[in-house]
Amino acid sequence: MDYQLKAGSEFSSVDPPVVAPPPARRLHIDGVDGLPPSRAMGITGNVLRGVAAVLTFVAAIVMGTAAQTKRVVVIDDSGSPVTLAGTAKSHYSSALVYFIVINVLTLVYSLATIILYQASKKAAMAGIYLPLTITDLLTMIFLVSCNGAASAISVVAENGNRHFGWDKICVSVRQYCAQVAVAISLSMFATVAYVILVLLTIIALHKRL
């Protein structure tokens, strides 16, 4: 404590000046803390969602229509020819049905968010941008999971598995396997679109740290 000499040889204490601490740094990201998403971020997000919507739409149709019937003529015990028919359909596999469902849901979600961005005012987007970002991340995760499940079925159909006694069915139903592979590829590109969308959000957050 400082002391100052005054008249009459009396000492009085003088408090040091109070220095106010610097204001705490707040974290801001587009759409959080009342800040609406930037115009560039909104346009980029709509473009990526539009690309994902188109890709998942085509992927769901290609996978849903994947079917092929193979007919084989064999000789029975009496020596008469018998025609046997076997059909491969995507609906016969729960993993491929899961693939179709997730791609349809992604299509609906992508279109809904695009419409929401276009219909809502910029200020109103600040309150829903963070929930949409979280939903984008969940959508990406579901796309990855359905693509992984469908890819596993595709690999088994192409190569078989001798340990479980599963034959290579793609030898007989090439068209069916080709459709499944095309659908998976399209859905993977849609997944990439959502990966880019999530990464852009992370980069926007990092720049405001």
From TrEMBL:
Where in the numbering of this chain does the Casparian strip membrane protein domain appear? 40-192
Q: Where in the cell is it found?
A: Cell membrane
Recorded GO CC terms: plasma membrane
Pfam families associated with the record: CASP_dom (PF04535)
Principal location listed in the UniProt entry: membrane
Q: Membrane topology type, per the record?
A: Multi-pass membrane protein
Write down the InterPro entries for this protein, in alphabetical order: CASP/CASPL, CASP_dom, CASPL
Q: Which domain of life is it from?
A: Eukaryota
Q: Which UniProt keywords apply?
A: Cell membrane, Membrane, Transmembrane, Transmembrane helix
Q: Where are the transmembrane segments?
A: 47-67, 95-117, 129-156, 176-205
Which interval of the chain is the signal sequence? none
| Subunit structure and binding partners | Homodimer and heterodimers.
Q: Which family does it belong to?
A: Belongs to the Casparian strip membrane proteins (CASP) family.
From the Swiss-Prot or TrEMBL record, give the protein name. Answer: CASP-like protein
